[in-house]
Fold this sequence. Notes:
The chain has about 300 residues and is of the alpha+beta class. It has helices spanning about 20-30, 90-100, 165-175, 230-240, 300-305, and strands at about 10-15, 30-40, 40-50, 60-65, 80-85, 110, 115-120, 125-130, 155-160, 180-185, 185-190, 200-205, 220-225, 250, 255-260, 265-275. A hairpin with a 3-residue loop joins strand 14 and strand 15. The longest helix has 13 residues, at about 230-240. The protein starts with 7 loop residues before the first strand and ends in a 5-residue tail after the last helix.
Amino acid sequence: MENRITGIHHITAIANNAQRNYEFYTKVLGLRMVKKTVNFDDPGTYHFYYGNENGTPGTILTFFPWEGIGQGRTGTGMATDIGYAVADGSLDFWKDRFKEFNVKHGETAEKFGELYLPFQDPDGLQLELIVPKQADNRLPWETAAIKATDGIKGFHNVTLTLKNVQPTATILTDVFGYTLQRQDGNRYRFVTDAVANAAIVDMVEVPGGTAGHGAAGTNHHVAFRVPDEAVQMAFREKILSRGLNITPKINRDYFYSLYFREPGGVLFEIATDNPGFTVDEPLNELGTHLKLPVQYESMRNEIEKVLPALQ
């Protein structure tokens, strides 16, 4: 069987305040806190993972909440918009909810034949709720306020903003196996048929655009999904053969990672499905404990004193 990229694994963004970020994604959007851990390179900073019940790849949005980092700026050379899939007929529910919680949002519009509702998180991260053309059968995490009929199912797409789409498109098509489905003006839609959901990468070409500045309200990187380490390392060889720099395999406890910067400047990751989020917590307790990488466990007391307490 041919090695395939099976869509988006996760997306990682930056926040300015841990408590505010936690409240927005779990209480306003109704996502599950799947894992509460720390940044591997900065253990005094949380790393939050939000998703569905199991933390299925394709549903996971993660955050580095660097306290007081200041406001970022979206621009070229970064992922700028995250699209979540929701059920047909649910956008009115979300409009009302956004009004109730004073969430910045736009009006319902249409893009590539799909209805979407744009909104921002408290740091200004650009998000969209999208009704896919083809029904998304994934089950959302359900809360008392947000039933499964309206809940967020997982990623539908991610949008990259670039000065020139062609070099990035070549990576998507020739290496990752995506195909160009449609172009509308300066917007291009690439899809993979290797997976039913979280299978779309949109690119917007802005030749004279200003480069983005990574801080609160911006995306840090986009991770693409592979089933295991054998497939992952085969992709590492493909990336190296293109003359691009790529990291060695890194153990992130819940998946294995490779990182490289694609020609347009966006930081890409290739992440494995294995071993998953239940490796150190049972399913019914996901996200309820502070889990530390083994190298920091001996520093738990010091780390817990530095991390902001979550209410």
